[in-house]
Amino acid sequence: MYSLIECYEVESQGSSIRLVKLRNPHGATEWTGDWSDNSDKWTDEIKAQLNCEIKDDGIFYMSFEDFLVKFGNTSLCMQQSEKLLQQSFHVKDN
Description:
CATH architecture: Alpha-Beta Complex
Strand content: 25-35%
Strand order of the largest sheet: 1-2-3
CATH topology: Cathepsin B, Chain A
Helix content: 10-25%
Order of helices and strands: EEHEHH
Number of helices: 3
Shape: globular
Largest sheet: 3 strands, antiparallel
Structural class: alpha+beta
Distance between the termini: 43 Å
């Protein structure tokens, strides 16, 4: 199973781009389409916005639209901790 690490919406040349950052658990094969490590879509501006390192490490980016096409099923699991709950929800003090 691939891990969905982060989702981004970045601005470039007046357009909004939605990207997802994924990890191949085997650390070898990566996406080779748009926004892959060797894609010509990358600009220095977008790399800086995402603090992106392009290297063959199993971590890769793809457009949200490509993600929806390539990954038919997605399971999400919320890490539960008191700190995360307090950051996610307004906790009313008594």
